[in-house]
Design brief:
The protein has 85 residues and is an alpha+beta fold. It has four helices and two strands. A two-stranded antiparallel ribbon has the order 1-2. Strand 1 (51-56) and strand 2 form a beta hairpin. It is globular. The protein starts with a helix and ends with a helix.
Length: 85
C-alpha cells in the first residue's frame, strides 16, 4: 500500500503538501510574483491562515479574478524567517 505522499503526487513531481515552517516561508516569499506557487499549494497556505484572497474586478464578463496576498499571520512568519538565515 502506498503512503499518502505518493498518492498525492502519484509517485512523481514535487510533494503536494507543505510540512515545515521554512518551506511555508519560502513559498510565501513567492506569492505575488511570476514564480508563484501552484493554486493547490496556495489554497493549503490559505487554509493555514497564511494567505488571503482578494477579488479583483476587471470590468469584463466572467468570474472575477482572485489574487493571493500574504495575511498578517503570513507576514509574521516571514519576519521570523528573516532571522533564521
Amino acid at each position: 500500500m502506498a503512503n499518502a505522499k505518493n498518492i498525492a503526487t502519484r509517485g512523481r513531481g514535487r510533494p503536494a503538501e507543505v510540512e515545515t515552517s521554512k518551506q511555508k516561508a519560502a513559498l510565501l516569499q513567492r506569492i505575488g510574483t511570476d514564480n508563484a506557487p501552484s493554486r493547490y499549494i496556495t489554497m493549503q497556505l490559505a487554509d493555514a491562515g497564511l494567505v488571503a484572497f482578494e477579488t479583483v474586478q476587471s470590468g469584463k464578463r466572467g468570474r472575477p479574478q482572485q489574487n493571493a496576498v500574504v495575511s498578517g499571520k503570513g507576514r509574521s512568519l516571514l519576519a521570523l524567517a528573516a532571522r533564521w538565515k
